[in-house]
């Protein structure tokens, strides 16, 4: 039978020794009070068992340093870099650059719909998603980017960087031609519609 000397009076937990009981009691006696006004007005006031727990709370919730802004969704995040990386991996999976590099057409499409401006983002080497998609041979993603209004003059960047191969040239020419053909088709459709309207009005 265990001695009463190692039983917690607060919750009745039986500890293995007086030392572990002393450690356990600290969980009930949270003497480190947060000095933030909002935390003090809460019922009960926000308290912590250890100084480290209090410091961690203050750094996350009351840190006066500038916050990071997510480049994809513009949400404000705590300054710590690991929080920012976790947010990117959880919500954006590294953003459009990572999705293009993986050849993940579905994620690229989702990002273009939900964050239209992301198509012009650049990676650390100043490379755009279009440049990366063409360089890696992801023709469908090149088409997706062009369909979503990415400037087809990006091809000149490929030439300047010396990264244009015959395959990439052919791919971009195909994608550019497709974009121009679509434009010509819509233009011709509009013209034929206008001429039909004019003819029907004349009859």
Automatic annotation (TrEMBL):
Transmembrane segments: none annotated. It comes from the Eukaryota. It holds the Pfam family Ank_2. ANK repeats lie at residues 125-157. PROSITE patterns: ANK_REP_REGION, ANK_REPEAT, ZINC_FINGER_C2H2_1, ZINC_FINGER_C2H2_2. Keywords: ANK repeat, Metal-binding, Zinc, Zinc-finger. Residues 6-33 form the C2H2-type domain. GO terms for molecular function: zinc ion binding. SUPFAM superfamilies: Ankyrin repeat (SSF48403). This is C2H2-type domain-containing protein.
